[in-house]
Amino acid sequence: MNNERILINKLKSFENINSNLLNIVLALFGTLLLAISSKIQVPFWPVPMTMQTFVIFLIGMTYGIRLSFATVALYLFEGAAGLPVFASGGGIAYLTGPTAGYLYGMLFASIVISYFANLGFSKTYFKATISLLIGSIIIFSIGIIYLGSIIGYQKAIAVGLLPFIPSELFKIALAVSLIPTIQKIIKK
Q1: Model confidence pLDDT, tens digit, residues 135-148
Q2: Residue in 34, 154, 165 with CA at minimum distance from that of residue 94
Q3: 93 membership: H or E segment, kind and range
Q4: How far is residue 102's CA from residue 95's CA, in Å, rounded to a whole number?
Q5: Which of 2, 19, 125, 178 is the most core-located residue (most Cβ within 10 A)?
Q6: CA angle 141, 58, 25 (to 5 degrees)
Q7: Cis (ω within 30 of 0) for the bond into 98?
Q8: pLDDT in tens, 75-112
Q9: Long-range contacts of 43-47, Cβ-Cβ distance < 8 Å, separation of 24 or more
């Protein structure tokens, strides 16, 4: 896996660790963060928010493309295998149920965000914002398309997109305030 842009590799204390071992540890750590973030509900208007997409943003902006893909794919596999990593548990039903599109969207979004980060989009606040907006659009587009095929597209937009826009903008702002700042600190 390409480790050139993985943020943790820029830290001096991780320079001498075997890259394959580090990738495995980072992938497992990423799935743990995703599982924890899916369980935490933060009171927000108009609906409570989980921090799952925020963790997707962090993974996408700090891991390389292959590691981002491997991490989110491993997370989906863990859930499909029955581990309780999703918001309400685990099992294959989550990958075919109403929220499946959002889960698949997170996989594609992490890849696209990583691709943009490889182009330098994680280094500036403006470009990071663009990257994460595109990632959110991917997550919600795939989620709405899938959910809409089950309950109808107008209802899918009303219940699966509109209530989540404020919290998604908050998570984008939070990730944008963190990652470029950390990149600048590490670069020094």
Answers
A1: 999 999 999 999 99
A2: 34
A3: none
A4: 10
A5: 178
A6: 120
A7: no
A8: 999 999 999 999 889 999 999 999 999 999 999 999 99
A9: 44/166, 44/167, 44/170, 45/166, 46/163, 46/166, 47/163, 47/164, 47/167
